[in-house]
Amino acid sequence: MPDSDLNQATSLSSQVSQYLWEYISREKLRPGDDVLSEMQIGRDLGISRTTVREAYRSLAAVGILEIGNGRRPRLLSLNSNVLAQVSYRQVMETRRSIEVQTAQLAAIRATDEQKLSLKSHIAAMRDAMDDHQRRVSADLALHQELAEASHNPVNRLLLDALQNPLMESLLVDLGSQRTLNDISRIIDAHENIVNRICDGDAVAAGNAMYSHFELSASIGSPT
Question: What is the pTM of this model?
Answer without folding.
Answer: 0.63
